[in-house]
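Sample A.
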Amino acid sequence: MDNMNIPQREPVIQVKGLKKQYKLGQIGGGTLTADLQSWWARVRGKEDPNTIIGTDSRLFGQTFMALNGLDLTVYKGEALGIIGRNGAGKSTFLKILSRITAPTEGSIKIKGRVASMLEVGTGFNQEMTGRENIYMNGAILGMTKAEVDAKLDQIIEFSECGDFIDTPVKRYSSGMFVKLAFAVAAHLDSEIMVMDEVLAVGDMKFQQKCLGKMSDVAGQEGRTVLYVSHNMSTIRQLCTRCVVLDQGRIIFDGDVEQAIAIYMDTTDVNLVHYDLEHVNRMNVGGGKRLRLQSLDFLGKESSVFSDTELIKIQIKWAVSEPFSGINLKMNLHFRDGSPVGITHPVDIGAAQPGKTYTTTFTFDPSLLGEGQYYFYLDIFDGDLVRAVCLDKPVTEFRFEVTSGNLSMPEWSAGWGRIHFPGVKLLEEE
């Protein structure tokens, strides 16, 4: 009899046996003639004449399981965190939820409308103004003009873009873009909000404002939030439940702190080479005018350093237009996402298109205590006040410091307590 008085939780997302398979290599030559040429070459055992230079043709025909049998139920009003290493399947899962791509196998049932923000400005038309994009997104969700009108002032006020709301969004900075995009997703009538690492673009004050709004959305408005992030402090702040993905499978589902501890165990500080060509970027236009191709920890078999050992890093990059000077800085975090500090920007030199550049620099970890860290690499044009981000891959470059004599301080909100000197550039070999 008592059980009848226990409120039943209402499922809004039910996933069973979800799989997503991708084929590796180029799919189709773009024209019927090219496809016939490629087919005839394969029949004769010859090299495909349409293969892109630098592509490994041995990968053609192989498959990759981005998701490999997910079972998950998400309930109304939950703030669910989804964490895992790069390539674990997080973004693929959210794309299936948002109906951007279809699953290979399995079923997914969704009760309610989904507002997704998988990249900065998802669903925005670059040629339209901010105001026009608000109405367009409302129409996509099935709202009438009157319903959008009722929300319009709240959206504009939250976005802090009021002075530019009638300007085409192609002229917005990446910060303005993410502010308006989040305001639209958070205020329009949808039962489910899906967010993928988008808050990394905004400034710290706006990130906190967004986290507060998402908490209100889940807690007070009864809407459901799915949030992907590599920043464990924001996962702690927002989420009431957390799942850990690894190689396309859920390896944990439950308490947030337990999930974070398991995620920490899956992170790899032994990786010394990162291929950055095909990873996502944190900002609109990132990687287009300048693109980081790779990053390497030099002279090491693992990225573990003593506090008296200089960390030697090499990056390769190219540009699509000339630059008289390009700045580089590192944004350092403790392993749970807490900010540690930033390095002072350094000019890595001028560049012309048509050449691949190699930049080698060192970082002194002696100001860090013993523990595990990661950094984002930020490449930008101009000084810090008028910085225009050129490239910032969504990749955590992880390393560990050992034999430290310093104890880790209690990290405060904002950018830690350390302003590191600039990295030291080394001459190209």
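Sample B, a different protein:
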Amino acid sequence: MTAKFELHTDVLVLGSGPSGFAAAYTAAKNGAEVILVEQSGDVGGISTSGLMSHWTGSCGSPLFNELLKRSAEKNEGEFKNKITNIIDPEKLKTLYLEMLVEVGCRVMLYTFAEDAICDGDKVLGATVINKSGKTDIYAKVTIDATGDGDIAARAGAEFVLGRENDNKMQPATLMFKVGGVDYDRAVFLGSFESTYETSNGELQALAKQHIPYPAGHILTYKTTLPGIVTCNMTNAIEIDGTSAQDLTKATLTCRRQMDDIVKYLREFVPGYENCFIVSSASLIGIRETRHFKGKYTLTEKDILEAKVFDDYVVKDAYFNFDVHNIAGSGLDKTGVQKHFSQEKGYTIPYHCLLPEIKENLMLCGRNISGTHMAHSNFRAMPICLGIGEAAGAAAAIAIMQKCSLNDIAAEQIREITGI
């Protein structure tokens, strides 16, 4: 079926998670005509529709700092005008849209990216589909911020699915919030390696005993609202996030776990005796799918050595090797959370954003070129936002200078982003 409509733009950004938002905002702010395509009804991806609890990890991104500052201005109560990494997803949904409107970005919600438009190795844009029908969107630069790299894959960019040796991927999670929590007594455990002893036993061990497999851990986080706690505790293993059937399976699996998790919280966790579910994510959290082959592939060694690349476009990226157990609950044997020992921030080179053999296309967010272990670190949302900021700057430069993405110097990108 041929497309019903046709649009032309300078920059097309597919996906509006933190990386896609940052790419679209930065490109539009610097003079490019931008269309941002998002499959859901809100901008923000996991940070909003996914009910993510907080900005975990950090990045030396001026845009990230601006987002935190402007979020603080929208907060109420004790968090009013206070910089915090805690996310209020409802206020963040509005802030994202307001910022995009400020810079003149065109946003297309409720719209799926269906296929790539290509001429040989040149990516000319993408076909999208929504209630109005199909639209071919032609762009001078296409930025794939879909998380899974859907359009890059359809364009023929080379990738590895999941872990290099067996293609297995980290488990999926559906975030949810509980109310009725006594904050004066509540326990908040922020990592798998965090423990808490009670008269009934240690909470992580009790979770493994009393929450049905493959769930079986406790991760609870404060919110900006009184008595409300975000739970990162559901778990679906052997899920391929590029499969609609598996996404449905993961959603059902996680929803079936929620009542058992609440029962555990009420019975064993101080402060949660009267808790109840108040909301759950409308977007399943997929941690890992495609790792694309770029002009450079970031490695675990690069991160451990805090390598400073000549062509870096992201700096002061900091997180841990957050590998959730691929075979069950808790931390994978390869993962390290609070005991991660590398205290320096690392950099990400521009060449990780460029697919090896495709032109006019950039990778953006967790789908950039990196190994399974490196990805477990740079997939953190602040780092993905910094990647998006760099991608948007590169796109704006390509438009202004009428040049190839391959011909842009990292120094030009850093000048625009201010890192």
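Observation for Sample B: The chain has a mean pLDDT of 97.
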